[in-house]
Amino acid sequence: MNGGQHMLELRVLGDFQVRRDGEPLHLPPSRKTRALLAYLAVTARQHQRERLCEIFWDIPDDPRGALRWSLSKIRQVLGTDESVLATDRNAVALNIGTDYARLAPLVKTDLSSRSTEELEAVLASIRGGFLADLSLERCFDYEAWRQAIASEVEIVELGILRELVERLGNEPRRALPFAQRLRRLTPDDASIAAEIEALEDKVRSAAAQATGRAPQSAPLAPPSKPAASPQDSGRAVQFCRALDGTRLAHASTGSGPAILRAAHWMSHLTFDWDSPIWRHWMRELSRHNRLVRYDERCNGLSQRHVVDISFETMVSDLECVVEATGLDRFTLLGLSQSCAVSIAYAIRHPERVSGMILYGGYVKGWRARGDAGEIATREAVATLMRESWGKSNPMFRQAFCSMFIPGATHEHFAWMDDLMLRTVSPDDAWRLQNAFAVIDVSDLLDKVRVPTLVLHARDDNVAPVESGRTMAAGIPGARFIELDSQNHILLEGEPAFEEFIDHVRAFIAETAGG
Q: Strands, DSSP E only, in 230-281?
């Protein structure tokens, strides 16, 4: 709110609105102007004009002139109070309240420490997705920011609903609307459906006691829906807490002997089901097994912008997910850098790991390997990540995607753009790459005491095939299989992926019963 006579508020948790004294104001028709207003208000800090021009306008469009025009329109909306919008030749700042400001502190806090009234008030302010009507597909920096905040809002909303349903279990009439809202967001979560049924029974019983009548029997259930597909059930995301309080998102699909996929970067539990980059992996791994996945911290639906991204914390996060999902014994699947995390976990908990499958991994990260040429190349890529991640830079996108998936089609390139945009922020991508660079599990390999299968693409550009051979040679009894592919992420339809799945199923059949 401003310091003038009239109270101004921006609503960004849903379609964008500006209200004065509770009444909605007429907004400029320009989507970029409205998006600029929302961006300035939510970020609540001073911005250099040059940077705002880079975010919202292309160079040929006279961005400084476009910025001046948009600011003039914003002034018309905000009124005469000069303290609200502060501008000079170089910088712009906006001081105005938003509904997001009340939610923001909950992103990095333990919800159980917050009062029920506060949680209910924040929940009431969430009318839909963050700036749901203000996507700007061609403004890559803005869109990356909007998507990151939208994921945070979604995580907080789910977390509040679960907290309130659990906290208000003894007040069924009060808890029931929250459980029903949670079910609308996670329609295939069987545990929520059961919780709603239990709450409805309690509400009916309480009503019957109040009137002195016997409880009415539950109405006949509607015809049952067809069984949910793995894709649908994979969207039933749940959350647990890491040791440092970080929220970790996890999901489970399929049935049968359990496979736990240790988290790798650039994953998103729900979006991956739509993506031709990952959906075939989940479909095939869920076909005869229960597949448990979780998003790594700073990725997907797990908590973003987390300070601690150390290797030890990644292993600890895996331990927390195992406990939260109730897995007693399972096949542990490591991909890329999560191979090293899987090795460390299997050494600590051999009684839980029936077998370990490692694909595309490495014993030492690119900096730890010590090759001067590789280090120089990787450092250049890491710098480009920080500057070009999520931006309209076709050269960077082409180079990055080609490194991971040389066999990509135009469709894969487009989906990789979305994957980068939705899963991790530029700063977190840069930080994670530097964390992966120093991984070194060479001293752990000979301590592994679980059956291990190591697979690697022959012409992998991300992790050289020698990394896979070294890993298998160092693990007692490990089998090594070289796949005829150049893709770090195996693609649907290529023979190497079919071979990978065949080896995985044979290995699980051999080890899961042990």
A: 238-241, 247-253, 258-261
More confident residue, 446 or 422: 446
Q: Which residues pair with 259 in a beta bridge?
A: 291, 331
Residues in a beta bridge with 454: 358, 480
State the DSSP H helix or E strand holding residue 475, giving kind and residue range, or none if neither: none
The model's confidence at residue 384, banded by pLDDT at 50, 70 and 90, is confident
pLDDT tens profile 332-346: 999 999 999 999 999
| Cα 401 → chain centroid | 20
Question: For residue 131, what are its two tokens?
Answer: 């700036």
Residue 437 is encoded by which pair of tokens? 């660079």
Contacts of 211 (CB under 8 A, 6+ apart): none
Q: Dihedrals φ, ψ of 426, to 5°?
A: -55, -45
Strands 353-359 and 452-457: parallel
Distance CA 47, CA 75 (A): 17
Write phi, then psi, for 354 (nearest 5 degrees): -75, -30
The DSSP bridge partners found for residue 252 are 292
Highest mean pLDDT among 239-248, 352-361, 427-436: 352-361
Residue 486, burial from CB neighbour count under 10 angstroms (0-12, 13-18, 19+): middle
Q: Give the span between the Cα atoms of 404 and 415, in whole angstroms.
A: 13
- Give the dihedral of Cα atoms 24, 28, 34, 40; nearest 10 deg: -80
Strand order in the sheet with 290-294: 238-241, 247-253, 290-294, 258-261, 330-335, 353-359, 452-457, 479-483
**Poorest-pLDDT segment among 86-95, 114-123, 191-200, 265-274:** 191-200
> What is the residue whose two structure tokens read 């997910």?
321
Closest CA to 103 of 135, 149, 59: 149
- Write the DSSP symbol of residue 440: B
Tokens of 379: 């450092």
What is the sign, positive or negative, of the torsion defined by CA atoms of 396, 398, 399, 402?
A: positive
CA distances from 349 to 7, 244, 313, 315, 448 (A): 58, 21, 16, 11, 10
What phi, psi does 308 have (nearest 5°)? -90, 110
CA-angle at 187, arms to 183 and 192, nearest 5°: 45
Count other Cβ atoms within 10 Å, centred on residue 501: 17
As beta bridge partners, residue 248 has 240
Tell me the average pLDDT of the chain: 86
Dihedrals φ, ψ of 34, to 5°? -65, -40
Structural contact between residues 344 and 392, judged by C-beta atoms closer than 8 angstroms:
no
210 has a pLDDT exceeding 80: no
Select from 281, 318, 304 the least CA-distant residue to 422. Answer: 304
How far, rounded to the nearest angstrom, does the alpha carbon of residue 441 sit from its chain's CA centroid?
A: 27
Contact criterion met (CB below 8 Å) for 143 and 421:
yes
